[in-house]
Amino acid sequence: MGWIDAELALTAVAAMLSPTTLSFSVLALVLGDRPLRTGVWFYVGALGATLAVGVLAAFVLGNKAASTTSYPKPWVAVIDIVFALFLVFFIVRFLRRPRDPKRAQGMVDQMSKIASSPWIAIVGAGGALANPGGFIPIAMKDISETNPSTTGYVVEWVFFSVVSLLPLAVALIMLAVSPDRATRLLQRVRDWLLRDARLIAAAIMVLLAAALLRDGISGLIHMS
Questions:
Q1: pTM of this prediction?
Q2: Within 10 Å of residue 99's Cβ, how many Cβ atoms?
Q3: Quick one: which of 136, 122, 118 has its CA closest to 168?
Q4: Half-sphere exposure of 47 (CA within 13 A, CB side)
Q5: Left, alpha or beta for 62 (phi > 0: left; psi -120 to 50: alpha)?
Q6: How far is the C-alpha of 63 from the C-alpha of 59, rounded, in Å?
Q7: What is the pLDDT of residue 29?
Q8: Of the candidates 151, 218, 202, 163, which has an alpha carbon nearest to the alpha carbon of residue 1?
Q9: What is the spatial distance between Cα 42 and Cα 101, in angstroms, rounded to a whole number?
Q10: Mapped to the 3 state alphabet, what secondary structure does the chain carry?
Q11: What is the CB neighbour count within 10 angstroms for residue 166?
């Protein structure tokens, strides 16, 4: 069912480009004296928390959202529409909200403290601040619609988790290979995030909302 795979891919990309997640990830790498150490533990926390949620969903939700037709089940269609409306509301509110220098500085102060904390605190911060957040329920639903086995659900969730944290993973590899060059690049990325990232994230979320709305409406139209 290609439309489900496309929706899951859009969800993963939207999670990957979430400005909040990207900002915390970049700050974890540019603040503190040992950015690679901080980044690795931050990534471990974020990936571990995301994988744990997915493994739980594999046993609790499984393939309950899978349809025997080419259209979503009615209750899944309703959830699609609710998710789409929520995304539209969030996008409008997000774009209309002016940039808040105090909020940005608060994120910097928070991550500065975390960067110099023991490893267990950094792992906890990664799990809390760099997980895919609101995109997790959408990904759970998307994977369930593919009618997976428990193992298949876990495999698809690993894909979603890895993609959603791909920028942080790439940055860690760059830091390990060329620390000085990576640090300079991350500083520029930080400036870009503050300036332009939310427009790109909003565009991806608009595409995701459109896909969800289309699927939801088609499911309700073809109710038997």
A1: 0.85
A2: 9
A3: 122
A4: 15
A5: left
A6: 9
A7: 83
A8: 218
A9: 24
A10: CHHHHHHHHHHHHHHHCCHHHHHHHHHHHHCCCCHHHHHHHHHHHHHHHHHHHHHHHHHHCCCCCCCCCCCCCHHHHHHHHHHHHHHHHHHHHHHHCCCCHHHHHHHHHHHHHHHCCCHHHHHHHHHHHCCCCCHHHHHHHHHHHCCCCHHHHHHHHHHHHHHHCHHHHHHHHHHHHCHHHHHHHHHHHHHHHHHCHHHHHHHHHHHHHHHHHHHHHHHHHCCC
A11: 15
Tokens 């289309």, located at residue: 214
Cβ count near 7 (within 10 Å): 23
pLDDT tens across 32-89, in order? Answer: 778 889 999 999 999 999 999 999 999 999 999 998 887 889 999 999 999 999 999 9
How far is it, in rounded angstroms, from Cα 62 to Cα 81?
21
What's the mean pLDDT in 177-202?
Answer: 75
Tokens 């500083």 locate to 187
Place of tokens 């400036």: 191
Residue in the block written with tokens 């000085």: 180
Contact in structure between 111 and 20 (CB atoms under 8 Å): no
Can you read off the two tokens belonging to residue 21? 């997640």
Both tokens of residue 165?
């944290």
- Enter the tokens of residue 205: 């979320």
d(CA 172, CA 185): 12
